[in-house]
Amino acid sequence: YFCDTGLACFAQSISSPEALSGHPLLGAIFETAVLGEIRKLASLLATKPNFYHWRASSGAEVDLILERDGKFFPIEIKATHQPKVSAAYLQKLRKSALLMPPIGLISAEEQSYLVK
After folding, report:
1. Phi, psi for residue 114 in degrees, rounded to 5
2. How far apart are CA 68 and CA 29, in angstroms?
3. Is 101 buried (19+), middle (13-18) or exposed (0-12) by CB count in 10 A?
4. Structural domain count, the chain
């Protein structure tokens, strides 16, 4: 697992944004880049959040969960310009004792969304 997305791209011979856009690792590399930026921002906080990834046996998962003061903030990270979160996915999360939407959604889109 690479924390440096530039090194990860180099190791995969990805030399341009165009090459990355069609690569099977696009999602993982985008998630890594976003997580790195969030970790940098969190390092400036007086009380640092804990970082988690969550996956249920049902298959539901959350890319990033920030936990601070006993509160959980689930965040989905999508490397698409048209992010979608299905109703079935939200239903799986609602059944979880740990996580309840709303969910933050970070994507390659210029506009932000709050998924309820």
Report:
1. -115, 120
2. 26
3. middle
4. 1
